[in-house]
Amino acid sequence: MYLFTVVGNLLIILAVTSDPHLHIPMYFFLSNLSLIDIGFTSTTVPKLLMNLQSHSRAISYGGCLTQMSLFITFACTDSMLLTAMAYDRFVAICHPLHYSCIMNPRLCVSLLWVSFTLGLLESLLHNLIVLQLTCFRTVDIANFFCHPSQLLHLACTDSFSNEIVMCVIGILLGVLPASGILFSYCQILSSILKIPSAGGKYKAFSTCGSHLSIVSLFYGTGLGEYFGSALSTSPGNHVVASVMYAVVTPLLNPFIYSLRNRDISRALERFHTRAFSVFAPAASR
Question: Which residues contact 41 (CB under 8 A, 6 or more apart)?
Fold first, then answer.
C-alpha cells in the first residue's frame, strides 16, 4: 500500500512536470499536493511497517516528537493546499475572464508558501504544548503514530487548558479552511446551474469532482479524528479514522485524479509513450 502511494503520487508529479499543457495553477497545486502526500504518509507508514516486521512498537521520545512535528506539518499543509485548489476552481468557474490575471504565478507560489508556513506554525504550537508535559501516566499510545492530543491524555497533570488551545488551533487551521472550501463550492454550484447546456455543466463539474472527493475524505475523517481525540478519553476508538486520512487518502489521491481527470490520464499516456520510446531501443541493443 505504501509503495502504491509513493509511486502513484510520483507519477502525478512526473505527468504534470513533463507535460507543458498541465503547467497551469490547477495542476501546479495538484503536483505539490502529491509531493506533500508522499511526505505525509512517509511520516507514519514506514515506522508502522518496521514495527510489524520487528514485532516491536517502541519509539523514542525524540522520535515521537519528530514524527508528530512532521505529521502535523504535512497534514496542515495538505489542508491549506486543498483550500487553495478550491479557490482556484472558484476563480476558474465563477470568474473565468479574470482567471489568468488573478491566478498568476506569483499568487500560486505565495499560496504554496503560506500553506507550508502555516503547517510549520501549527507544528510548532503543538510541540510547545507537548513539551510542557514532564510526567506521563503510561507510555502506551493507542494509535499507530504519535498524535498530540493522545499524548495530552497520557499526562499526569490536568491538560484541560492545553486541550482548549488545541481545539482553537483546530478551528483556525482546520474548520476555517473547510468552511472556505464549502463556500467556494456553493458559489461554484450556483454558477454551474446557470450554464444553459448540459455538456457545459458536466465539463465544469468534472473539473471539480476529483478535488471534491479528496476534500470530503480528508476533512470528513481528519477533523472528526482531531477533535474526537482531543475531547475523548478513549483514543483507541479513533484509530480507523487516523488510518483513513493518514494512509488511505494519500493512496486514493493519484487514483481519483488519474481516473476522473482526462488531462492527467492523457499526460500519463504521453509520458508512458515517451518513456517506452526512450528505453525500448536501449533494451533491444
Answer: 2, 5, 6, 246, 247, 250, 251
Cell 476534500, residue? 215
Give this prediction's pTM. Answer: 0.86
Task: Assign 142 to helix, strand or coil.
Answer: coil
SS3 sequence of 11-52: HHHHHHHHCHHHCCHHHHHHHHHHHHHHHHHHCCHHHHHHHH
Give yes or no for a contact between 35 and 253, defined as CB atoms under 8 angstroms apart. no
**CA-based radius of gyration for the chain:** 21
Instruction: Give CA–CA dist 66/63, Å, rounded.
Output: 5
Determine the Cα–Cα distance for residues 207 and 185; give it in Å rounded to an integer: 12
Q: Which amino acid is at 229?
A: S
Q: For 236, which DSSP code?
A: G
What pLDDT does 35 receive? 93
Per-residue DSSP letter, 159: -
pLDDT classification of 15: cutoffs 50, 70, 90: confident
